[in-house]
Specification:
The protein is mainly alpha-helical. The protein has 2 domains: about 80 residues, RNA polymerase sigma factor, region 2, helix turn helix motif (Rna Polymerase Sigma Factor, Chain: A), CATH 1.10.1740; about 100 residues, Arc Repressor Mutant, subunit A. The chain has 9 helices and no strands. Helix 1 crosses helix 2, helix 3 packs across helix 4 and helix 5 crosses helix 6. The radius of gyration is 18 Å and the shape is elongated. It starts with 14 loop residues before the first helix and ends with a helix.
């Protein structure tokens, strides 16, 4: 997924260097940061809002906001954490204002759904297995998992996406959402439990 198409030779530079260049008005440096993070930002937003068109628009909006506010970034957190805080907050605010999330129908992908059911059943049967949200990265399972993640409460959905799919640390999630680490862990536990319950319903 590409929203900004500007050639740059500085993609290998570290974030702090690119941010400093952005703050001096270097548009190529901002292009580097966009190229580096746009797909990850888009994928997180998509799993929160469950709509491709909205995710594309919100991703562009996120980078516009970052560009507008880059001069105020002081490096108290990593650029990565700051960027994802902007993306998540913007997406959550949009969801609250504009629409009520609804799950995508599974009927259109029956073959993929049936193939995924067996593998998900095996995941659920193993108490020491990988958490279901993690396997959403596998193509044949993502339709089911992503659909069910969309049915979770918003606060649970966000921590699940950030931890099990984006693989952020608890500390990073706490910083992005501006909540305590213990709150992250409790929300994640409830989210995983609810997701398993939804999966069991689908697979029975």
């Amino acid at each position: 997924m590409s929203y900004f198409h500007k050639h740059t030779d500085n993609i290998s530079l570290d974030d702090s260097t690119l941010v400093r260049r952005c703050q001096r008005g270097d548009s190529d440096a901002m292009s580097c940061l966009i190229v580096k993070y746009q797909d990850r930002v888009y994928n997180i937003i998509l799993k929160i809002c469950q709509n491709h068109d909205d995710a594309a628009e919100l991703t562009q909006d996120t980078f516009v906001k970052v560009l507008e506010n880059i001069s105020s970034f002081r490096g108290k957190s990593s650029f990565y954490t700051w960027l994802f805080r902007v993306a998540v907050n913007h997406t959550l605010n949009y969801c609250k204002r504009r629409f009520k999330l609804s799950p995508v129908s599974l009927d259109a992908e029956n073959d993929q759904f049936e193939e995924g059911k067996g593998k998900l059943a095996a995941v659920l049967a193993d108490p020491n297995g990988v958490d279901p949200a993690v396997v959403a990265q596998q193509k044949e399972l993502s339709l089911i998992i992503v659909n069910l993640i969309g049915q979770l409460q918003q606060e649970h959905r966000v921590v699940l996406v950030l931890r099990d799919i984006e693989q952020m640390s608890y500390a990073e999630i706490a910083e992005v959402l501006r909540i305590e680490t213990g709150t992250v862990k409790s929300r994640l536990s409830r989210a995983r439990t609810k997701l398993r319950e939804l999966l069991e319903t689908v697979l029975t």
